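Hey, why these numbers?
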Amino acid sequence: MSQLLKEKIIKKAEDIGINKIGFTHADPFYDLEDKLHAQQEKGHHSGFEHPVIEERIYPEKIFDEPKSIIAIALAYPSKMRNKPPRVKGERRGEFARASWGKDYHFVLREKMDELIAYIRKEAGETVSFKPMVDTGELVDVAVAQRAGLGFIGRNGLLITEEYGSYVYLGEIITNIEFEPDQKVSFGCGDCTRCVDACPTDALLGDGRMNAQRCLSYQTQTKGYMPKEYRRNMGHVIYGCDICQIVCPYNKGIDSHFHEDMEPDPESTMPELKPLLTISNKEFKNQFGDLAGSWRGKKPLQRNAIIALANYRDFSAVPDLLNVIEKDPRPMIRGTAAWAVATITKKRPNQDILDFLKEALEKESEPETVVEMAEAIAELEIHLEE
């Protein structure tokens, strides 16, 4: 029965647009235990992970009598078909590929709900399921690797034979027992391109990372971005694709299976200056469907300010001064002051320096006071040269 049901599920998965599906047993992920505890002790976790390590390792702690886990993968695009036209003087940011199109959490959940409804119809009402995507307890890549979808590369991402690492992952714990699929062997060999290319040395080389140093994590924080990461961020205002772009398995990969995942150019490569003063309603209308909007507009506005500084866009200085004068959020004002100093230090201006000094007198939030004082000191050094 279970083998026939498995074959039917595989066929149904194909019919509803699931690109890869695999089955594995629900035994604990013992090999993760030491790794997860070591990461936590070293402060390498991002804080976005499920907080209870035991529940990430032992499926029986989150599901009654688990027998199998079904892993699925949806392939997403790596190239934009229609980029916004280039306009002189117009600076744009960019969202990493995993935030193109409709938020993948919803897309995957819809596919899994459809698959579960089919399995329930075939197997009866006594079967039970627990689906999860990204924010669930289990480690997606560990489940997917054990279920035979691919292997975990040195960058910590699942790498599939057909779609490279450009895949979204989800899994379903169930009380149905299926024959497990074969685990895929490690396929990176001696290649360390992702490790070598990571600008912040976040990758540890064995599939683990210091998530605190990952640019993808840094673009999602809500406070000040530490200065050491700002230049490395470039103009990608959400996420980071560097370790994927350099991976040999991703060469030539560009999947276009799901219309929901196709990027809207104006949302995934937005103009930066309008982002500085975008209203909550405008933000929701333009970015609300993207996975990259989950932290709200504040981190993206901060990142837009940093991107303008990285462009050294002198035309943005009036916009940034306006932010310093009118934005109610200290962190945004402080980041804008840093950006002004970064852009204008090659052409220091006494009026701008005086403006920043006046702004500093109104500040009381400690980090913002330091940020503005350092920006002022930077400009004073260059004015004296």
About this structure: Strands lie at 20-25, 68-75, 94-95, 129-132, 151-152, 158-159, 167-174, 236-238. Residues 2-79+100-174 form one domain. Residues 68 and 121 are 18 Å apart (CA to CA). The two ends are 81 Å apart (CA to CA).
